[in-house]
Amino acid sequence: MSLTVAEVGCPAAERPAGGPAAPYHLGVRLIDSHCHLQADRFAADVDDVLGAARVAGVERLLVPGWNAWSSGAALDLVDRHPWLDAAVGVHPHDAARMTDEGWARIVVLGADPRVVAIGETGLDYDRAFSPIADQHVNLYRNLELALETGKPAILHVRSPVGRRDAQDALVAELRAAGFGGPAAASAFGDRPPALIHSYSGPVDFAAAVLDMGLAISISGLAFRKGEEATAEVASLVPSQRLLVETDSPYLSPPGGPRGRNEPAWVRITAAWAAGQCGIAADDEAALGQFGDGLVGAYDRTFPRPDRRAGELRQ
Ligand SMILES: [Zn+2]
Question: For the chain, which has fewer Cβ within 10 Å, the N-terminal or C-terminal residue?
Answer without folding.
Answer: C
